[in-house]
Specification:
Layout (H helix, E strand, L loop, with lengths): L7 H22 L12 H20 L8 H29 L27 H16 L3 H29 L3 H7 L10
Amino acid sequence: MHLTLRHPDLWFTVLGVCWGVYEMLLSYRRRAADGGARDQGTLQLLWRVLYAAVAVGVLLAFVGVWRYAPALQEPARWLGCALLAGGLALRLWAIRVLARWFTVDVTIQDDHRLIRHGPYRYLRHPSYTGALLAFYGLAIGLGNVLSLLAIVLPVTWAFLRRIRVEEAALTQAFPHEYPDYAAHSWRLLPFVW
């Protein structure tokens, strides 16, 4: 078998590697000046969970049991590519809209303001929605039910924990604005939550 641009394995691998490199650079370059005093350790927890879940998920993908049916392997890989690309696009858009207020730590800067345009018009955490879509794409694209569970469950839990901490910090920093914003926007998934 040779890989061509029409082969989903190539796209899946390229997207996954580019995403990983981007997230590492982002983590290095976009740290909070205060060291994430309000973060409550969620960044470290998130990184640990993400690394462990992806490592276990990838290892399980090589286990012969619980693999998708052969006819589903290629469609699953393409669906994984689509979710990965769509999730990354949403995450990049959200980070770009936040501009200098984006950090990888939960923090409130001195001149911080509440952003309500771009993807933030509809979602309070579009960057996390994008990351979750990308992780779900990775999990689906690995082609194994055990990989899917090993990635989706812990990654979702870690992001939900972080969202609780972030929303508490935003409510404290914007006691009137943030509850109003929360009442008129979705947390992660439009029309659902």
